[in-house]
Every structure is written in structure tokens, then in C-alpha cells.
């Protein structure tokens, strides 16, 4: 699925292995251990991945190679690395990049704290880059920190949404068949042109499939295939499964993949990827307030309205109390959206507490975190000049925390005595909060919106 | 190109034919007349189009058939109809929809003022729907308002970005070869699975192409093919070019298409389409002010900053004077973004003038129009309470004009005596204006933003 149900497709932090943290992943890891017998403890080097990233992305129509194009200010390849390194049974990830992009790649790994990555020089073609990656994994390499895996996954730098489930499927199938790859139904009919540019024949769509990534191979099979294969194959070949078939007589098992395995190829694919990522990190909102005791607390009223107004969004609430212990957990669980209710004072006391907690965490490393600082005011009681002070303050805060990838907005919700009017202004506030979270518009940070 | 250079890909109003209004279109029409001899006057029925729209869009993973999925609140198929009807040498557009969607389709045609559209009942398969469309065009139909065209274009309801250039190419090629279709390079390698779900063989990517739309045929050729073809073809076939080849021995000419011919198939494609459309209607901003004489006018200062801050965006300025005659032209030329500078008074006098002009035009029928009502205030001189009044006012205006598809935002730009500070607040204002235009966020209408 492209944009899963709430939570299911929530992106993962790099570094700490997530397997077992969530249902799906847990099943996956468990079955890998049983089916494929690669209990991490016993066969630490069982599975590695090779990621060719030497392409120049000419189809994108932009100067930057597409794997380095930014999505929410982070290069596409970083999302793909994140998707691979969250799978703890993948021990090594070898990325093949061109010499000129080697430094860029190193800085990406450092900035986004990617783990278990090794870099090799890309070849002039995709196959040559993959071959270089395999050589780095082969034991016959001198001074290689890497050791030969039982199974190697080959994936694309520009397929950022690969899930642990499909990686497990191809690895398991590769152990049984020697080779395996993800496939998808064809969207368009495939035809063959004759020399004069006319239709020669068209293929029956139902009998063919698009070969996608990831693919997996017994290392010895694919390494042998690359050592045997001709220069023509290395220059013009596009299909690793074909090499295994041609040079090792290994018939790859084909595994149905999900739609989100698609390859970011054109500019429109970058747009699509950005929308998918925005949607995935907008599936949970945490309403933060100074206390959890008082059920009549206006924060809880707002929480209720958010729940009723925003379908498909998980709305929780947390108190800043207890040294924010529960809040720490929410941050660890990667909630990227916070609505901070300031009531005790008219300034940003609660918001500032939350901001310092976020700044101490590494939550903002991978995705921009939205913080909406909510203030309730009965316009009859508080002089508008008060608002101007708030406004000026929040603009400074916003500039400051933007440096740390936090998008801060202010929201004034009018608090009339009339209950019905209050409900209406809360509803209005919920709509504004939803808009801010959906768009993550950095041009509007520091603005004080009014509901 | 997916999102063309400023202007080049600007969407067209339906109804009035645009050919000749812009360079590209003019060339196109001219060469159609010379190359293909279909001077509209002489052969009014030379070219028609059939649009199968009976699909249920199961791949989209949403209940609504994808051709009816909304983009900026307008159904996808309306964008495709708009792309076809802007081409004045396409005389009739026959759309095949299922009985249950017939009324939906009629209301779409009415609401978005589509012209030259005829509806027929879709068949249970794509081929049967196309056949029904062709039958409606064939002269042997009783009570048909339509007459048989020389050439028929077959396109998809879910390929909204088709340009006149490629339509001309396939029509011209069809006149010469009897059939023609757009093709694209393959993105993935195509493979054939064996019965046991393993790789049987893979096709050499370079020797195959994806068959896309539009396609064009001499009407007699494709109609003959459909009349001859087997039930199996009608049930399971996917390729019209193949029918022409199989039943009329007509070898279709293959025409390289641009990337934006792609088919909206998955949810991610809807995201991509929305981003492309937003980008296309954000390529021009008109700064509206009460006078054009005064070059020192703060509106002109803002215009200059907008020009320097926003690359790839055409920034013009117009005066509301002369009964706004020039402004009328800008509206006719489909500028979807207005920055209205209010200086003479602190209320919304100029903005209201602009809003009524927009409401009288039909500019807002197809796309949401952004209006940013800009107010300059020296915070030292004007009491903040003044702002609150403005704010309350603009919220009401915004609600009102939203009904007519106008997104109204307020922007207060501080006007300090210090020139450098003024430049900075103008720059800040330009960033906010750019954000509002890029996102077209209806959740934030009526807000008063501060720069």
C-alpha cells in the first residue's frame, strides 16, 4: 500500500534496530529466524545488501542525480538507507557511488547517522557498480572490513519505500531457489518496434511482469554469475536475475511486490514520494499540556475535537509533568506532530519545555517536526497588544528551532463563554492544525494563526 | 517535460478554443492544416476522440474510480477533457462511462462547462467501451448527433497532461499509416514467469517500449478491426494497435511521447498529478495596486522583491484603474495568483474591487485562485487593535469567496522607516506569498499573516 493505515507505515529511526518493535516486523524477523535459520546471534553475516547509486538520473530532467534529490530537505537515498538499516538482520549495506559523489555520500551518512554502511566506487554501468559491491563483500578482498554473506540483497537507491516484509520474502526465496526478485503487474502494454519505427508485435500484458527491486541471491550464485558474465552483459544488461539464469542456470523465484516498490524515476515521482512521506509522518498528533489530571482541561476539549475532525489520525495527549517521562516515550516512538497547549501563562512556557525536549532527542534528524503552540484567549478579556508580544516572541523561537528541523507555528484560539461558540472555534483550530501538519510549510513558521 | 518552463504548460480554459493563442499551439494547428489538410472550415468532422472512462480503478485502492478522484476538488477526468477540448481541431469527444456514473459525468460536464462532449454507455471491458464510442461516431447509428470522422483519437480518461503537439503527431501519422500510437521507454525490465512462478526469460529492455496513449486511427480501419475482432480480444485484449494489425494488417506508426503522458494508476499518481497542477498554475503572479504611475509605490517595491526572490515565476503588475481593463486581460490569460496591495485605506477597498472582477470572470471555474490581500503598516503608527478589525473582516470575505473557488489570505507587511528593515520585511512577505501560492491551503484562508 502506498500510504498505509495510521501507524502501519510509520517511518523508522535509523540505527536502533526496529524488528520486534512492531507486529509486522516482529513476525517478519521471527519467521526469518525459523524459515531461514539466520538467527542474528549465530550467523551475524548471513545477509548483506548492495545498493548501486552511481546513476546520473538523466530522466529526472534535473542536474542532481535523482538519488541525491532532496525530499523534505533530505536526499532520497537517505530514505532508502533508513528503510534497509531498520531491518536488523541486514548486517552490511554496501553503497556504490561515483568518485565525484563520494564526499556527498559520506556527509549524508554522517548527517543522518546511518549505520552499517560501506562505500565502494561505482562502475560506469549499473551491473559494474553491483559487481564492485559484491567484490567488496567477497572474502578474497584484502583489507575488507566486510565478510562474505550467505545471501545478498540487491536494491535500488531510488526505491525508498521497501518494507521488511518483502525483503524477508526475497531473502527466504533466494535461500531456497538461489535467486529471487520482486515483480509487479505491467501498467502499460509492452510492444516491440520494427526497424522502421512501426509496431512489430505487442506482448500479452497478462503473461508478463515488470521486474522490480529488491532482489536477493545466494552470494556464491550471483558472484559467480558476475565473474563469468561478458562485457556486453556488464555494459548493456539490466537484469541481475537474467545473469543468474544465464551463467548459473539458477531460475529465480518471482515474488509479488507491493505498489510502493516503485522506482523514483521522473520529477513526478519525487512529488509523489514527498506526498507519501508527508502523509506517513502526519498520522499521529500528540496534544501536550501542563497537566493530565483535569478532564475539563481545555487541552482535552481540543483533543476531543481533533479526534472527531481528523479521521485516520491518531490523537493522543501527554502531560509535561513527571519530568515528561511519558512524553519521552512518545518522542522515542516517533510522533512527528505536537500541539502544545499553553494555559497557565500567556507566554510560551509549556512550548519552550517541549521544544527543549525535542531538541535533546534525535527525533528531528530525519523528518521536520511540527509544533503548534496553542493559546486560548477570550478576546474580550485580553488586550490585542498582548497578542502582538506573543507574535514577536514566537517568530524568534521559530527561526531558532528551524535550525534544528522543528517547524513552529502559533495558534490563538478564541475562548468565548458561550459553549457552542467555543466548540466552533475549537473546530476551526483543528482545521488549521491539520493544515499545518499536512503541508509542513516552512515559509509560514513563526506565524500566529487565529481560530 | 513534467512541469514545463513558465507559461509553456499553463493549463487552458475549456470552451473557447486556444489554438493560435500561444506559439506552440499555433504552430501545431497550422501544421495540422497543411500536413493533414483538415482545415476546420472544410472538414469540420475530420477528427474526433474516444475516451474510455468505464474503469473501476481497483489499483488505486480507493472506492472512487480513479477518473473521478478529485485533484484540487475537481475530478481527474475533467482535466483530461480540458486538455482535449482546448484543441480546436478535435470536433467531438465521446466519453464512455458506466450507467451508474452517467449522472456524475453529466454534472461534471455542466459544472466545469465542458464542450463538444457526447456520452455513451461503457462496456464491461476497455475494448468494449471504445467499441461503443466508435459505434456512436459511425454514421450507421440512428439518431446520432455525431458524424463519422476521418481520424479518431483514442485516449485515456486518466492521462490528463496530454499536449496538442503529441495529439497532432499521432493524428498526422495515422493519416499516413492508418494507425499510430505514443510510446515511452520501459522503466523496468519486463520478464515472463514460468508456470511455477519462476523466471522463464527476461526481455531486452532496449528492444521494447511501453505503449501509451494517445493513439489515432483512420476511423474505417479501427472500426473495421473492432467489428471483426473476436470476443476473446474484446474481453482480454489491451492494445488497440494490435487489433488494427491483426484484423486490418495495419502496422501502426510509433511516436515517442513525453513523460507527462503517464497514466494515473495508483494513489501516488494522484499525488504527483496534484503537485504538477499546483506547479503549473503557480507560474505567474500579478501584483495589483491602485495606481501604475508612481514608481516609488510600495507595490512596485514588493513586485521587485518578488521578482528577485521567486525564480521561474513570472511577476507582473497591474493597476485597478481604467476600469481594470488590463487586469481583465490578465484574467483572460489565466493568471491564477494575485497579490493585491491596499494602501489608500487600511481596509480592503482594492481587494474587494479585485474580488468582484474575479467573481465576474469564469477564471475560478477550473482552478482555485489565490488572492493575497497585502497591507503595509508601520507598527509604531497604527494601533494593533486596527489589525484585529482587519482580521475579523478578512475572515468573513474569505469564507464568502471560497464558495467561488477563491482562496483569500491577508498579509500585513511592517513598514519601518529604515530602508534596510523595509527590504527585509518585503523579502519575508515574498516568502510567505510564495508559500501560500505553492500550497493553496484552504485550511488557512482568512488568516492574517505577518511579515
TrEMBL record, chains A, B:
<dbReference type="InterPro" id="IPR040635">
    <property type="entry name" value="ISPD_C"/>
</dbReference>
<comment type="subunit">
    <text>Homodimer.</text>
</comment>
<keyword id="KW-0808">Transferase</keyword>
<keyword id="KW-0963">Cytoplasm</keyword>
<feature type="domain" description="D-ribitol-5-phosphate cytidylyltransferase C-terminal">
    <location>
        <begin position="283"/>
        <end position="430"/>
    </location>
</feature>
<dbReference type="InterPro" id="IPR034683">
    <property type="entry name" value="IspD/TarI"/>
</dbReference>
<dbReference type="GO" id="GO:0035269">
    <property type="term" value="P:protein O-linked glycosylation via mannose"/>
</dbReference>
<dbReference type="InterPro" id="IPR029044">
    <property type="entry name" value="Nucleotide-diphossugar_trans"/>
</dbReference>
<dbReference type="Pfam" id="PF01128">
    <property type="entry name" value="IspD"/>
</dbReference>
<dbReference type="GO" id="GO:0047349">
    <property type="term" value="F:D-ribitol-5-phosphate cytidylyltransferase activity"/>
</dbReference>
<dbReference type="GO" id="GO:0042803">
    <property type="term" value="F:protein homodimerization activity"/>
</dbReference>
<protein>
    <recommendedName>
        <fullName>D-ribitol-5-phosphate cytidylyltransferase</fullName>
        <ecNumber>2.7.7.40</ecNumber>
    </recommendedName>
</protein>
<dbReference type="Pfam" id="PF18706">
    <property type="entry name" value="ISPD_C"/>
</dbReference>
<keyword id="KW-0548">Nucleotidyltransferase</keyword>
<comment type="pathway">
    <text>Protein modification; protein glycosylation.</text>
</comment>
<dbReference type="GO" id="GO:0007411">
    <property type="term" value="P:axon guidance"/>
</dbReference>
<dbReference type="GO" id="GO:0005829">
    <property type="term" value="C:cytosol"/>
</dbReference>
<feature type="region of interest" description="Disordered">
    <location>
        <begin position="1"/>
        <end position="29"/>
    </location>
</feature>
<comment type="function">
    <text>Cytidylyltransferase required for protein O-linked mannosylation. Catalyzes the formation of CDP-ribitol nucleotide sugar from D-ribitol 5-phosphate. CDP-ribitol is a substrate of FKTN during the biosynthesis of the phosphorylated O-mannosyl trisaccharide (N-acetylgalactosamine-beta-3-N-acetylglucosamine-beta-4-(phosphate-6-)mannose), a carbohydrate structure present in alpha-dystroglycan (DAG1), which is required for binding laminin G-like domain-containing extracellular proteins with high affinity.</text>
</comment>
<comment type="similarity">
    <text>Belongs to the IspD/TarI cytidylyltransferase family. IspD subfamily.</text>
</comment>
<dbReference type="InterPro" id="IPR018294">
    <property type="entry name" value="ISPD_synthase_CS"/>
</dbReference>
<dbReference type="GO" id="GO:0008299">
    <property type="term" value="P:isoprenoid biosynthetic process"/>
</dbReference>
